[in-house]
């Protein structure tokens, strides 16, 4: 009996091996075509596979969308930070560009009139909020050769004079300060007067003590007269915008708008030495 069972098992094993070899022959990858059964099975399962693929794709996209929604706050924050950084860089570049333009104008003015006087560039580092058109602080002091009463200009015109000095800073009194007084004259007629600041805070000045019979009209240019020797002669100051009679009836007063933009002073030129007080620098537009 055991011998019969062994023989039976051997026959069964041989049949299984034969079937396996036959299946391998008809299903190997390199065969020229599929068997009829494979074709039928694949064709029957194709629609189901397509549906399953679409379902799987939709599920995968949904999972990715949910995952991406979770990352949106972080990505949004990162993008905002990047935009802020780029804006800051643009603002800085624009500021540097404007500063370079201003300094270029100052240096051109200094080089053009270096035979008339020597100057030193100084930056405005402080203003008195209660006296915006009165006193400003510069970043140059006695260690830079700055002393009291030195005149201060920009390429546009007269700004004021130094009234106090420390080692590293100096105080500049603008020509619009009511305490300021500048020897001035009408460029066209050469009629002298005194230019002083006003108490109105308008940023304007006025030319006083001009004889009543003087031809004084709007649009005339006012320059320094050189009287008092504090300010070099011929530095442009401003333009007449209004003329009126003084209460005494003996003189005229002219409201003068400064050429220099005293509202937005950032850099100025301090005149440290005047070589020839009688040489006139040009006025605006020359």
UniProtKB/TrEMBL annotation:
Q: Which UniProt keywords apply?
A: Cell shape
Pfam families, A to Z = MreC
What family does this belong to?
Answer: Belongs to the MreC family.
Which GO cellular component terms are attached? Answer: plasma membrane
Q: What is this protein called?
A: Cell shape-determining protein MreC
List each copy of the Rod shape-determining protein MreC beta-barrel core domain by range: 124-271
Give the GO terms filed under biological process for this record. regulation of cell shape
Recorded source organism is Desulforamulus profundi
- Top-rank lineage group of the source organism: Bacteria
Q: What does this protein do?
A: Involved in formation and maintenance of cell shape.
State the Gene3D superfamilies in the record: Rod shape-determining protein MreC, domain 1, Rod shape-determining protein MreC, domain 2
